[in-house]
Amino acid sequence: MGNSFSFTKPLLETPFHERTYEACYNNDWYRWAGYKIAREYSNTELEYTAMRNTAGVLDITPMHKYDIKGTDAIKFVDKLVTRNVTEINSGQVMYIIWCNEDGNVIDDGTVFCFNSNHLRIFCAERNLNWFSDTAIGFNVEVEDVSDTIAALAFQGPLTCKILNLLNVKDIENLKPFYFDKFDLNGCKVTISRTGFSGDLGYEIWCKNEDAINVWDSLFTFNRDYKVLPAGMNALEMVRVEAGFIQPNADFMSAEQALRPNRVRNPYELGMGWLVDLNKNYFTGKKNLVNLKKKTLTKKLVGLDIQGDKPAIGSVLYDKNKKEIGIVTAGMWSPSLKSNIAFGYVDKDHMKIGSKVFAEIYHPEELEYKKIWAECSVVKKQFFNPPRRHKVPAEI
Amino acid sequence: MRKFDIIIIGGGHNGLVAASVLSKKGNKVLVIEKNENLGGLSNYVNSLSYISEEVLKELNIKIEKDINENYVSALSDDLNHTVLKITGNKNIEILQTNASESDQANFFNLINKYDLFARTLRSFMFNKPPRVKSGSRSDIWQLFSMGFKVRLLGKKNMRELLRVIGLNIADDLEDNINNNTLKGLISSEAVIGTNLGARSPGSILNLLYNQATNNSIFRINKYNTNSFLNSIREICKKNNVEIETNKKVEKIGISNQNVNSVLLDTGEEIQTSLIISNVDPKTTYLKLVGAANLDTDFIRRTKNYRTKGTVAKIHIDFKNEIKINNLDTKYLSGKFVYAPDIKYIEHAFNDNKYNKLSSNPCLEFYINKNRLSANVYFIPYLISSSHDKTEILSNVKMILEKFITENQILSSAIETPNDIEDKYNISGGHWSHGDMEIDQLLMMRPFYGSSQYSTPINGLYLCSAGTHPGGGVTGINGINAAKQLLKDKRNG
Lengths: 395, 492
Prior knowledge:
Radius of gyration of chain B: 22 Å
Mean pLDDT of chain A: 95
Oligomer: heterodimer
CATH topology of the largest domain in chain A: Gyrase A, domain 2
Strand content of chain A: 25-35%
Shape of chain A: globular
Order of helices and strands of chain A: HEEHEEHEEEHEEHEEEHHEHHEEEEEE
């Protein structure tokens, strides 16, 4: 992710920048949607460990936020995405993906339902153009509210405890994939029990002017709990463990791919469970019906790899050394004590338990060590502790 | 609830042609027309220069030839007009001109060159256009034969065709001709009814395309439009096609991506499983079908389909019979063009780019005793405002005063593209239901995903000028759409 761009306009600073700047000992910044976000504050492993054992705080302000307002708001989202959202309740969050007419995935995100006339979609890539064109013929207005809302991801096993100590009332009873309005240290905030870490965790949405106060309050009990700000590198680690895929990393967004064979449909990404072919017409339905009948030629799967050297960018082979795919993300997982990865495999190796081989090039003091590692195909979700789903959450 | 085998929305000429073809096969057909009169935009056309063999054969009709000798007069400010006589479709003579001998010779060379290219285009113009990447054998064969027909021109001509096809008309004319009036005359044929100026790339293609559909570089009077329309109407009548006028379709009923009914403004719902829409593609998809039933990519293409009309229609009644200064009265039966040079056309087009009306517009007009009917361009369609019609009229009058003196205007009527939109329900009030440019032609007409007259909705077909081969009163769109429907019906 080398950013060798020359900018005429400096990157924007989020409302948390005053604090993140202080905390970012490495001064290592990542460019996300025109904002400066810390890639590593001081040590990625430390930040990761905080997220898995106490709590980590991530600045996710650059996340794109689109307000959908109007009497057709639910109808519009239902037309946009592959899941049936007509049954969504106020206060509920749904994980959604949306496809183009060929049935290839454009992006994923979450939709928050405030009421039947007001929904909000959060996603990592820009989608205003796609949403606006989808909105033609619906009584809705799509507005980009990205810059008006500051957001933190507060992830880790102690998050509920800390929020409880901060007198956020009833936070332990917030169910996964629900949100509500809360009082946090005198600020009105929206908290959702969602996140990208696959663990117990919350996302906190507040006004820009409350940002610093919210940030500071999360570190109030640091003498006992050692909450750390976490950067994008640590996030990358937890999201791979949790089995979350990312557009333009694990697959090319259908709106951005230049080469026609680089796009992926939900079935190839293992997201078939998100596609409801019995619901009303949505973009891509016609082709998804056909795609479902076809046998897949490739699929993104989880890989459990021999040894401890991460298989980043490795090519995958079958036992006859025939090339069958590529690894899109790989890491040594400290929590699971195993070497895990996401990778595309061909139709003969999609089944859980299939054996494939990765050719890993591991740099060791100016020399590459070539490792031929056996991998077994497993579920993408490597890390899924019970506390993630528990209601009430552990205080 | 009433029920029909096939409903045709819009009683324009293509809708009627489709109705005749389908009813001949024994289908119970209903045509619904919004206006009192059938014919739609073809009512604006007095005469046709060409009706293709395919149409005459398919419908089994014979049309009397109207006039065999035509005059085209290019008016010039110095009253040194150029007059062409066209016998048949292509036999062109220059009767009077201020152009030099060599210019005249070059003019004919150019016309012959364009004629040759247009004939090549015409050889695949009237068939259903092939789809790209469909994988179907007939489509591949058709693509191949299109290429082969171009190759048949020979090396030199093929190269020349490929050289000029994307060029602007001004460049090619300036390379060959010096005379301004002749340059203006050909340029005007290349840009009328389009969103192109003489210097816009693609204007030669538009010229060739029009030439191919009209079988003549200057659209001339040969067949009477009414006799063509009447004979189609008679076939419809003979085959018991039901025609209902003064009724507007509000919505096409769709369930599970299949057509099942149409809803009229009277509140009536009529059942059917097959619909041919003679309404322009934009209106069909965005208003009749509704965006909820279409993919976002498709909506995007529909939205981006360019349909800005640029021509206003004016009728002016004079007190006395009209005479043109310094022009023999025997030429009055012909067509008049006022587009004196390339620069003039380009300036008129400039205003169009900024959605303003041309203060010095180009004119194409016909004279019938006291009445003058003119196409005025460029008068762009406006999205949320309207033009000052008196301004357009006074601009036109200023031009006419140069040529028509000692006469008096009694009354005048004007229809801007906005009026045409309202009257005929054509988005943008565009002559051809959409610009005829390279990305909106052949298999790309109206746009990817909607070619070959079919649509993403099962049972819905298009037959308007927004389909291949585009605008002009050809009837080909109607025939091809009907054939496609029948083929799909046969194949289930």
